[in-house]
Structures
1.
Amino acid sequence: MSEIAIDEVEIAVAGLEVEPEAVRTSAALLSDAERLRAGRFAFDRDRRRFTVARARLRQLLVERLGTRPEAIELTQGVHGKPALAQRCGYPDLRFNVSHCEDVAVYAFASGREVGIDVEAVRALRDADEIAARFFSRRENEAYLGLYPNDRSLGFFNCWTRKEAFVKALGNGLSYPLDRFEVSLAPDEPAKILRVENTPGADCRWGMTSFSPCPGFVAAVVTESPMP
């Protein structure tokens, strides 16, 4: 597991393919509800990855809260965003998690909402159709204007940035993806261009994109500190 800091956001990256003994050790750190959730996965690979990802989350929270893994109580928002239970008196630590295949990424921020997403960059047969349906008109034009060899990265740049934003909001994909715009070209910095009628420079959110490991791209969105 590796950790970095970007704009006062702590980011951790973990691999989820581990030895069977490590999976059993990870399972022992989960709550009863988390073990039940793991048991509902149809495939053993997905069950292992969820188990290890949740155990890593608890270990990372332990490091930041100075408590025991079993003492950490997690709740979920209406759209599934995890959070620390307020009644337990934890510090105002916000966090978010994403995993794709065997890579998990975690983001932690103090007193500010945060969202993170990771994807494996790959060719999708229906990428153009997805972009036309879910990207804004401006984003779709930027995507179609890329050189063919850049389109897969441009597509997942856009997707991870949009997903990280709605996860930071806590609305999941219930928030219309065409109501805000992000940059996506591989040679441009990650930024929010517009949120509804507000220019990105004037919105209260910051965005960063990074590669947690070869072949993957991730984005993190954080609420700006109150003045």
Note: The mean pLDDT is 90.
2.
Amino acid sequence: MKQFPSLTRSAKSVRVAFLTKWDPLDPHSWSGTMRSMYLALGRRGLSVTALGPVHSGARLALRCGDAVVRALLGKSYDYRHNLWVAREYAFRFGRKLARGAFDAIFAPAASTEVSLLETHLPIVYLSDILFPDYRDYYPQCSNLLHFSAAEVERVEETAMRKASAFICPSDWVAGRAARTYGLPPERIHVLPFGANLQWTPSYEEATRKKDMGVCRLLLLGRNWQRKGGPIAFEALKLLLEAGIDADLTVCGCVPPAGVSHPKLTVIPFLSKRDPAQVDRLANLLRTSTFLVLPTQAEAFGIVFCEASAFGLPSIARNTGGVGGVVKDGVNGYKIAQEAGADAYARAIMDLWRDRDRYHSLCVSSRRLYDSSLNWDAWGRGAQAVLEGVADRLSTGGAMPGIRIQ
């Protein structure tokens, strides 16, 4: 088990078990979100101990089974959320908890890990999307076998029953937690995520007026189709047809064969483990004019926080939890779900032709990052939640169960 090493704490510091199957210090665990949360809690003076990584043999076997089911039946089996894996995690994490002294458990994206866990400790569960919303929303979660869907529902419901508090990054998820699982408002805490960057520019650098010689569009994402690559590419061509000198950089995925253009640059992958590649990503955020993400499905969108840190406005599809991070007229604009490339091109053209309005949007993007879209702000909120559940336990306060409707 790894303990946050850099702070000296008082004897009253809340001792937090950071419970996840991942290694929270790996910059690729949940695209760096685990690491950001782990470090943010440590900076708040909490005594944070990582219980992961924990590798599951059952999960590996079921992943192979999912591939077979897809090939033979055209259906899918969710190997990430099932009772077999949950039992294995309950045993292994139970042993790790028994070897330490803790006041609370923080379980980010860990419904399977905690659903069958037996513990007297209060659990603060975090998720950016709940099963009723991600079923048939993300392609990898669609077309589930009936019994697999029922199993996932049970895992999610059981995790929510165990949670003394629930943290989520958007009102979209908070509404689902209240409607489906009956959580009272005092148990739900909406804390937007931050930017998973090792460093961010100063306010002065981020709000400096940009070079407007070329309208530089940036699309960041691992899946060309799901992240709206075809729409971004068509928007580029519409801007060029309108006489705007524009280009598009796609980073993180590769367009299919036949998608090419002299104004299209493709960077298949940048690793956050490589300082040179991290610098290259930062330079893309620094020199681009717009982040364009017509994403088909998005639970939240850390990338919008990262863009805001660089004073880079976002033009994004209004879907899922995007409304929790992209605020119209503040750090970008949301485009209607049914809109096509012309709507994105119009939004970009309007801002491109009004330079004062565009610069004001860059400034307010950075201000929103400074006020709420950063991990220190998230850490303050999460600290209050964890200290609250630990205090109720230490004083013998009731930890009411969750009513499932």
Note: Residues 195 and 305 are 5 Å apart (CA to CA).
3.
Amino acid sequence: MKVEIGTGKYEQLLEKCKSLAPIPTAVAHPCEPSALAGAVEASELGLIVPILVGPPDKIMATANAAGIDLKRFQIVDAAHSHASAARAVDLIREGAAQILMKGSLHTDELMSAIVARDGGLRTARRISHAFIMDVPTYHKVLIVTDGAINIAPSLEDKVDICQNAINLAIALGCERPKVAILAAVETVTSKMPATIDAAALCKMAERGQITGGVLDGPLAFDNAISKQAAATKGIRSDVAGDPDILLAPDLEAGNILAKQLSFLAKADSAGMVLGARVPVILTSRADSVRSRIASCAVAMLVAYACQARK
């Protein structure tokens, strides 16, 4: 199975990866054709060295049905999806792999293994999710966070969500990411707690509690994404019309926004879990092979950026 790569924004990420050595990656339960093909194709592109974790019979049956040759790949036995998640996390902790990749298991199964207090991959920072989106109508890669993990984040949670996204954008080559903190309106009001959080986050960035990015908010979506809309409302902002990151007020808003971009604006999306010990590739079971490859490229760049910071 060969995926068409094309010439879009994701392909610019792949170009950045060409000079880097592939990274050992624990793939948890790749027992569905797209999940398995994504890992194999990413390997052929020199992004990862997949370690396939799951029931060997199921993995081989999936490969045979999809016409995929697995002779070059290591398979680590795990009886079922829960065991696959736990064993994949063990491989990370043992140093056998440096990236974790979701296969065809449920997200909550993988996340349970990641956040486990004994044997998980927690750090001092809150774990969050980011969609990395190639939107045809937007001029650069756009990060949307958090649309998958933190349901109703507190202000303190948003600090970590924001910092995780900034670090991700820097790893992708953005020197000083611009963060638009979204709300329904662009004015601060006690009737909308998201606007107060946005104002607090901006002040926290001024005081060095969030570093590496340029923050502005609250911004309604139109003001965040369009300079003209911002100008019409008299908003002067270095972020408006040019954000690298859209910080959603809660999971529902972030999830709806990302899926609207995918299904209405025909955006491609990659998925990453941030704030764990290693990059975690978190894609939907319905995602295309192209999306999985893009996620592998992002994870590779993040992994090398983490190594450079150590």
Note: Confidence is low (pLDDT under 50) at residues 1-7.
4.
Amino acid sequence: MVFRHHFPEFAELYDQRYAKEFGLFHLPRITRVAQKFLRCGDYTQGVARIKCTNPECPFEFFRPFSCKGFYLCPSCSQKRTLLFAEYLDQQLLLTLPHRQFVFSIPKALRVFFRHDQRLFSEISSLIFSLITDFYQAAARLTIRSAAVVAYQPFGDLLRFNSHWHALILEGGFDAEGQFVETHRMLSPAGHRAVSS
């Protein structure tokens, strides 16, 4: 396996050869995730015995442990992504209109994000603040909105490209608990929409 044979050398030489161009990363943490990934699905690293609860059913099998490595492991990452989407759909998001946005920054500024990952959370807060300020200005009253904002440091072919995906409630709740929709905010007819 290419990853198994070449990752240790890559990690050892990263700061010297690649950090200046691609940015500094917390290699000990990445190395721990990589080591778990190499053991993912390996029956020699432990298994769970799964048996049908029906006493008349003889079916049973063994399943190796997974690494739960988000992004690095294709299998575990896909499972985590699907579980997160299910959580958003069934437990978190309200049955109200939402809009999906992608926010990007100029290429000239991306170098700062390559070397300081903490900036991603600051921009996430800024995005939510800008949207909330716009909604309140449009509605001409104080409303509470909500958003799910996630940053992604790469784009096509894993090239570095700082951007944010945001799922934003299209409006907000006023002091009386009424939901104010975005399109009604911009309409002269009024802002009342639906009850919460």
Note: The chain has a mean pLDDT of 85.
